[in-house]
Amino acid sequence: MSKxxxxxxxxxxxxxxxxxxxxxxxxxxxxxxxxxxFTFYGLALLKKDLSELRVTPLANPAMPMPIxxxxxxQALPGMEAMATAMMKQKIAKKxxxxxxxxxxxxxxLEVRFIACQMTIDLFDMNPNDFxxxxxxxxxxxxxxxxxxxxxxxxx
Amino acid sequence: MHFDQELDARGLNCxxxxxxxxxxxxxxxxxxxxxxxxxxxxxVKDMEAFAKQTGNQLLQSGQEGNAFVxxxxxS
Lengths: 155, 75
Hints:
The structure holds 2 protein chains of 2 kinds. Chain A is of the alpha/beta class. In chain A, about 35% of the residues lie in helices and about 15% in strands. Chain A has a domain of about 110 residues: DsrEFH-like (Hypothetical Protein Ychn, Chain: A), CATH 3.40.1260. Chain B is built from 2 helices and 4 strands.
């Protein structure tokens, strides 16, 4: 029987979108059965349109910046857009896959995507904004899979 | 070394060389050999780990210029 990996994805920024999809696609390539439970801001990773994913230099002191930048400058309008553009450039230059590409690879490798119903209700999200083929469920749905999983990750 | 199929993963970064290797092997038959060329230095360790966990045998792992070359035999 194949090993199982369960991931809870809670973050909705461009940088933190990577770990769940990288680990899920790799595990699936190694023969794992994989399910990702998307909750709270992690649901942003299931949107059809991923262009809204951003990265912020604010409260992110480890983020490499071309020049040292005081926090008050980082808070100025446009700084987030600039950081996001910089990050996307770096991603393309270094041969790192886009989030959309990694998400598609996960789908091809039959990774299950479960969206948290409670979060959708809480934030009045429109299910039509999400990609096709996702499951809706709650904590019990997560545990049904996670209880049998060899690895459980909270990201 | 003889090989049946080649995968050019040059310029691709983690996890793409591994995921594409898996996808390519899925379309091959048991006993066939896949040659993978990659430039990601992380792929050297990763390909060993992939082979160990999937049962596909890593016949050879080496370097050609600035690229890493692997020969995998499909299980």
